[in-house]
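User: Predict the structure for this protein chain, please.
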Amino acid sequence: MSIEIKSADELRLMRRAGLVVAEGLDAMIAAVRPGATTGQVDAVGREVLAAHGAQSSFLGYGADYGAPFPGVACISTNNELVHGIPGERVLEEGDVVSIDFGAILEGWHGDAARTVIVGEGSPQDEALIDATREAFWAGARAMRDGGRVGDVSKAIEGYVKSLPVRYGTLREYTGHGIGSEMHMEPDVPNWHRRRPTPRLAVGMALAIEPMLTTGTHQTLELDDEWTVVSRDGSNGSHWENTVALTEKGIWVLTEHDGGASRLGDLFGPLSD
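Assistant: Here is the predicted structure, written as structure tokens:
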């Protein structure tokens, strides 16, 4: 297994890509409203990429082994958990919408996802999104030099299991290494496996991305070869950021503040 270790300058380049992703997600979330289509939301992401001279990490992905992905964002609604294809789907009040977005700048990738509700949603769906977001932060805070990838997985699982509500944690889909490619070693599962996992080291970057449902973890892939839905019809939530380990600590490359407001003493950005 070969894991890419980035220099400080390369992490700074990844931060630039990460800020494009953060801006794009903000803009697409602002476009989520009743009556909008998922294709219109995707178009907003395209505009942000163009404004920064960035390429999409997603557009055309998979062309070598199947149907190329046709959007710059995966936009999944309700029981669509991940990899939803943007198009003519009209958003309605109360829909749960997950937006996964990636950008490439100067050869370096950023990747993040957010889940929001169209207008007013149910308390159950609000709690699901809160749980997924907080599970991400539990995983991010577990990154440390000399630790293991399994520490991140264990922290995510531990947080989810500590909640009074039972959620399904997707097992077939995981986080991943990221850098000069979008998907790299190592895999970052959202549950703890009792087996050795790679060591974490300064210069590593991980896309940490809990994916939870209000039901079970079991999934199905639709005939479009992309959209993943819950087998039991339950709604899902997805929260992701690109997280780097620096000599100073943890740097969330796809958050505007780098994670400062959530990481406390663990926050370790590099200077520009």
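The longest strand covers residues 96-105.
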